[in-house]
Amino acid sequence: MRHDHIISAKQLSRADIEAVLDRAAEVAADPESFADRHENALLGLCFFEPSTRTKMSFTAAIKRLGGDVVDMGTVESSSVKKGESLADTVRVVEGYADALVLRHPSEGSAQMASEFVDVPLINAGDGAGQHPTQTLLDLYTIRESAGFDDLTVGIMGDLKYGRTVHSLAHALTNFDADQHFISPESLQLPRSVRYDLHEEGASIREHTELEPVLPELDVLYVTRIQAERFPDESEYRAVAGEYQIDAETLEAARDDLTVMHPLPRVDEIAHEIDDTDYAHYFQQAHNGVPVRMALLDLLLGGDE
Amino acid sequence: MSDRELRVSKIRNGTVVDHITAGQALNVLAILGIDADSGETVSVGMRVPSDRLGSKDIVKVEGRELSQDEVDVLSLIAPAATINIVREFDVVEKHRVERPEEVVGVLSCPNRHCITTEDEPVQSRFDVLDDGIRCTYCDTIVRDSIAEQIDVA
Ligand SMILES: [Zn+2]
Predict the structure, then answer these.
(1) CA A109 / ligand 1 centre spacing (Å)
(2) Is A86 in CB contact (< 8 Å) with chain B?
(3) Which residues of B32-68 are buried (b: 16+ CB within 10 A; e: fewer)?
(4) Which residues contact residue A134 at a Cβ distance below 8 angstroms, ignoring those fewer than 6 apart?
(5) Could you give the CA distance from residue A268 to residue A279 in angstroms, rounded to a whole number?
(6) Are B129 and B103 in contact (CB under 8 A)?
């Protein structure tokens, strides 16, 4: 890979993406052969907001490569609470670790932090900005279940604040994919994401309802609509139900539709879907470990 | 010297920013960090008739030459502006502003969740698009209200 830092899905070319996914497939096929690949490697975890799953999956990934983590702990218990800047924190932790993982509530934080360190820095979510490792595991899941050729993807829910959506939409412009965006008017794609998709010449359409487009889809990527995005509860109630799917909704879908969700879900996908062939969201979550192992392997010099 | 040019008095040493988009003179002052307390001698002409623009603003600043960062930002709100450097009452240098590829400092990001708005050792940085600017850090695009982002702090 050409990149020292993984900040945004925008920086990833098709070749980069395929290099990670191919390596992830190798990892998944034979995890044993990677077990001592990075003995003694230390991954610095800088989580400025809680994210148990992302943190656990990075921890699992480095440990399965033979390495370990150094963790700055929760913000409440760290020097950050005493007013230390992010730039200072990452410069200090850089001295303890071979690579850094950053989760931070401010947009652009990973880009800024990467300008202060020499070890590889991985963005594990910067506010409503980007979450590129989620995108890589989403793409891995899509490739496994639907392939990348002549793909029709529906992305539904909160498209305005959903950073996983922003990263995924951009990454899909590398492939032969038609993208359909389904959301309430007030939660449509932000201007900057539209700009990028337009610049890339992406094939996109926007909808407020799933129904008309559902039969065309190979993949339906569902995200959560949060009540706090709406000025009042009743406005939320009015739209939320329209973006929930259950067995009845999917009667109009193709038999081989892949339903995905970056999890955690609340009630966007009814539990009755879980045991059907549509459900790929738990597999999607599990794919986080081999994909992050592959990424770390490449960033830590897995080919040397 | 024409009658029109006399509307704004001559300066001895400094910079004349001419052909400013009509109505933008006060924003130009903001970009230059000039306000009532800054103590600089400044002349401002607003809505001055212009052959080229129909109507234009003009700003003359005594004893001050502009930095490239200031000129870069100025080009975004006054793309037709000319910068005249004056020494001993003579224009010794004259050039048009050019849209830069990026602007650093001077403007602040309107996204209040952007890392550049926090207390970090980083300057704001925007890529210049055909029809606006875009924060290099958080990707926020500003199109219509660039002047409102002038950081006068
Ligand atoms: Zn910004």
Answers:
(1) 10
(2) yes
(3) bebeeeeeeebbbbbebebeeeeebbbbbbeebebee
(4) A54, A125, A163, A164, A167, A168, A262, A288
(5) 13
(6) no
Q: How far apart are CA A100 and CA B110, in angstroms?
A: 29
> Is B136 an interface residue toward A (CB < 8 Å)?
yes
- CA–CA distance, A45 with A40 (Å, rounded to integer): 16
Ligand 1 center–CA A103 separation, angstroms: 17
Q: How far apart are the first and last CA of chain B?
A: 39
Q: Give the pTM.
A: 0.88
Q: pLDDT digit of tens for each residue in chain A (304 aa)?
A: 556 899 999 999 999 999 999 999 999 999 999 999 999 999 999 999 988 889 999 999 999 999 999 998 877 766 666 678 999 999 999 999 999 999 999 999 999 999 999 999 999 999 888 899 999 999 999 999 999 989 999 999 999 988 899 999 999 999 999 999 999 998 999 989 999 999 999 989 999 999 999 999 999 999 998 888 787 888 888 787 889 999 999 999 999 999 999 988 988 999 999 999 999 999 999 999 999 999 999 999 866 5
Enter the ipTM: 0.89
Taking the C-alpha atoms of residue B77 and residue B46, their distance in angstroms, rounded to an integer, is 15
Name A82's Cβ contacts closer than 8 Å, sequence gap at least 6: none
